[in-house]
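Thanks for the sequence, V.! I ran Nucleotidyltransferase family protein right away. Repeating your input here for the record:
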Amino acid sequence: MTQITFVIPAAGASRRMGDRDKLLEPVDGVALLRGVAARALAVSGDVIVTLPSATHPRAEVLEGLAVRQIPVPDAADGMSASLRHATAAVPDNAEGVLILPADMPDLTEDDLRQVMQAFEDASGEFLVQATGADGTPGHPVIFPTDLMSEFESLTGDAGARTILKANRHRLIRVALPGEHALTDLDTPDAWILWRANNPDR
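Predicted structure:
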């Protein structure tokens, strides 16, 4: 099986939520961040979670999960800071790195396996990006480890979009059910709508 390290960037300030932390919101009976991390662990033996600090409440909800927690002291620099710190910790035996946003409650273990299988089928040579059922680009994205050096120079809050764009000639897209790859909850209104549509969660 291809070795794929998961990276869950969870060091951001969640500013659009006001005084609430979106990653601590309950989903399926646990904090959103814990649920996402648990699904990642179910399909990968190496999961990195970036955090604002080792003592942050987000670290507490990960207690008992065998994830690698990486504090990001310069998290205010944006998503790029999380990705720089996390990719620097990717082990040498990894063949790919899957970037899994922490605020996507609808991604399932089967979704993650489907994206991983596409990467393995392509012998780890291509980037793999999940899309909605309609083909709209979304998350997660797997990057081959030969691109890890490109993460060192990332800046700002655009994440790895520049790397994705520069390597679109070696990009495979995989459609996931519905809007699994598109639903992210980073505003109070998004949460209200999602909860209205998912009353049992």
